[in-house]
Structure formats: structure tokens, C-alpha cells
Amino acid sequence: MASTSTLEDINTEVRSEEQGAYDVDINGFPWYQVFKKLATTFQEEGHELRIVGGAVRDIILKIQPKDIDLCTTANPEEMLEILEKHRYTHHKTGIQHGTITVFKKGYTFETTSLREDFLLNGEKICKFGASFEEDARRRDLTVNAMSLDVEGRLYDYYQGKQHLKEGVLRFTDNALTRVCEDPLRILRYFRFACCSDFFSVACPEDYEEIFAEKRSALADPSIVNPGRFWREFCKILPSPKCSDALDEMRKCKILRSLGFPVLEKSFKDLIDPSFSHTFKELQGTTKAAVILGIIFKGKVEMLEELITHWKVGNKVKEVSKFVAGIMPNINEIAEMKKNLYSYNPTIFEEEKNIRVLAMKSDKQCSLSPDQIEELQRFERPTFPLTKDHFAKVLKFKGRQKDATDVLRDDWVESCFKMEIPEMLDLIRKMADDPEILHDKLQTRRN
Asked: How far apart are CA 66 and CA 58, in angstroms?
């Protein structure tokens, strides 16, 4: 199924008297027959199975879903019984949350028991349920709250199809209530707008007021752990719509509540839309770290304060700080090569790509285009010394590892130009005078 370029093709007709039931053509999707067989199996056992969430949205848009999520009236124990009885290959992905992944003919269906919320002594509790409408109420956005049965009937409890056609994002139920329940939904709203081609990041006026009113909850770590912010920004930053989203969030006064410092320029001036394509070779989290570094170019202290507050991992810290502050200070290609060598061979290429792509996109980079190309061609060299070389120096006894570490440091410092005869000569000197090795080890430790 090819993706539609506009929303004009969303045109379904009412099929029955039942509220929210429409026709949707799903027969043409390659996985449909497998889903139909699975749904029929559940029906025979007295349970309903529907497609839910983003897959429904994609099907309406005539896009092949990346993931096919299903919901069922069967509870986890009943699900397991049905799948084992009919010999479906499955995995207890999150059985405590009611989720089992089903594998059939190369397709994967993440299948979850319906859930609903209820209050117990004033506290919201989640339990397994039997109502698709109650399950839909738990979802953040109307466009993700629709479900689709095996016959192609669309169950749309919150006008999700209409909002999809209009290209607007709306919360299920009352927006103020949804944001009060979980203030992080403010960030999820922008994250979802960034990750889809069909929605604007601009807030409706009523949402802008709600976000501005409730943003203070994001600044309270007792309500929202700041460590959760980065998970949302990992999806926002790599998006081509990132600068629009960040400027909109600044307009709604959300960024300050996240610990984001005040920046003089607009994000449109800081982030080139082409960066999303430039860094397409990088993985999502790494790409997000690079974009974050670009935003804080020359403002490493500000960046350090933010990423500490957000509790990001060491890799994100390293990459973002490199892009923000180290690049303008690297004047020699040799220094960059020595820096890259320190990385494990399994991640060397990724680290090199980060630096090359980031420098190509940085107009202030002090390295010339030819030097950057030279770095791109650079392959991690192999340390040439082996234990056989030590065997040639008969007087050298013990401490071979210490000597190897010292020699490797000298070899790296020479930018990998130090040759074996020179290394053997140094081994002989260390064998004759142990103080040489001792002094070098002291220098290395300091």
C-alpha cells in the first residue's frame, strides 16, 4: 500500500446504525489474511480482536503500518490459553501489563488485553476490562483512539477520523483533565506532531492556554521526573519540524519549565531543516544528541546544566558537548584522529560519522573541507606491536602489559607514525633501565 500525499482520500461511509462504525478497506494489506485467521480464532473462543492505535490511523491513510497492535476482550490468561490451544508462536512480552506478541507467517502482532481505569480511595487504578470504548478513553490522542475489526468496521469514539482529515491533534475526553492526569502529555503532543507528516505543531488556541497554565507541573520533580523529558526529545529533535515545535513550545512558555535556558535566537535560526537529512545515517538518540549540541553551539555550560537536569546518559552528554563546544577548538586533523582512536572498534565508525557530519554542517568549523574528507577516509589503525616483538629483546622480563600500554600511548601521540624499530629500541632501553618504564607509567597515571 502506498502512502497518500494528502488527507483528501479519507472518505469512509457509515455502514451500520451502530455509533462510530464505518467501512475501511483493509483487504489489500499483505498481513490481512493472517490477522483475519487470528481474529477468527479468538471469535471461535468467544472473544473479539481488533486493530488499535497508530496502525488504524495508518490504514485509514493507506499507509502500511510499521507495527500492528491488537486489543482483545480476553484477559492475559485467556489469551495464553487460546494461543497455546491453537499452537500460535508467541512471546510473553509484557504479560504483567496484558501484552503478548504473536508471530505468524513472518508477521508480528502485539496483542494486549483491554484495560480501563477506575478510582480506588481517590487513586486511579488500571485493570483489565471488556470495553473497547473504555480502553480508547485511556489513550492520549483521538487519532490514536480508534479501533478496527476484522470486517473493516471502524470504531471512532472521539472523532479521530475527522481530526485526522483536518490534520489537527486533539486529546481524548477533556484536554485539561488529560494534562492534569499526566503533564508529560504536553510533550507527547508535540512529539507526535513532529513524528507525523499529517499534523501541524501549532497549538489550537485553547490548548495553548492549557499548556501555559499547566506547564509549572513539568518543573516539579515530584510530579514529573525530569529524566522522562529526554525520551520525548529523542523523537522531537531529529524531526524536520523540530524548530517549529520548539518555537511553539517557547511561545507556550513550556521550555523554561523543562529547565531549558533562554536563547537569544529563534530555533528556526539555530536549526537548519536539512539537518534531519544530513544526519540520516545516525541512530535516533545519537541524531538527537547532535541536534541538541547544535542548538547550544558555543554555550557548553548552558548545555551541561540542561543535560544534568534531564539525567541523560553518558553517550548523549559526550556527543552533544562535542558538537556544542569541542569542534571549534580542533585545529589539527591529527588531534581528531587521536581522539577517535580511543573508541572501541565496534563503535569507531559511528563516532567518526558523528564528527564528520557535525563538522560538515557547522559553518564555524576550523577544519577545511579537505581535512574533513581526510577524516572521513580515516580507518582505525591496528597497533603493530605483538608479544613476538618482545621475544626478540631477550633481556626484557615481566611487565610486558605495562610496557605495551606505554608504547601504545607513544604510538598514538605520534599520530600512529611511530615504527616498530623505534618501539623495539625503546623496549631495550626499558629492559636495561627499569626506571624509564616506571617514569612513563607515572606520567601516564597523572
From this structure: 9
**CA 363 to each of CA 174, 275, 359: distance values in angstroms, whole numbers, following the listed order:** 47, 13, 8
Integer Rg of the chain from CA: 29
Cell of 333: 586533523
Specify the DSSP class assigned to residue 168.
Answer: -
The C-alpha cell that represents 132 in the structure block: 473497547
CA dist 333 and 351 (Å) reads 15
90 DSSP 8-state letter: E
- E strand or H helix that includes residue 99: strand 99-104
Residue 39, amino acid: A
Helix (H) / strand (E) element for 179: namely helix 175-181
Distance CA 379, CA 362 (A): 23
**Cα(443)–Cα(435) distance, rounded to whole angstroms?**
12
Q: Residue type at 407?
A: L
CA 288 – CA 284 distance, rounded (Å): 6
pLDDT tens for 246-279 read 999 999 889 999 999 988 888 988 887 777 677 7
Query: What does pTM read for this prediction?
Result: 0.74
15-53 tens-digit pLDDT:
433 444 556 889 889 999 999 999 999 999 999 999 999
- 165 Cβ partners below 8 Å, 6+ apart? 7, 10
Residue 33 half-sphere exposure, CB side, CA atoms within 13 Å?
4
CB 211 within 8 A of CB 258: no
Rounded Cα distance between 163 and 137, Å, is 16
Q: Are 260 and 343 in contact (CB under 8 A)?
A: no
Could you give the C-alpha distances from 270 to 252, 285, 301, 358, in angstroms and in order? 19, 19, 17, 14
Which residues contact residue 425 at a Cβ distance below 8 angstroms, ignoring those fewer than 6 apart? none
144 near 160, Cβ under 8 Å?
Answer: yes
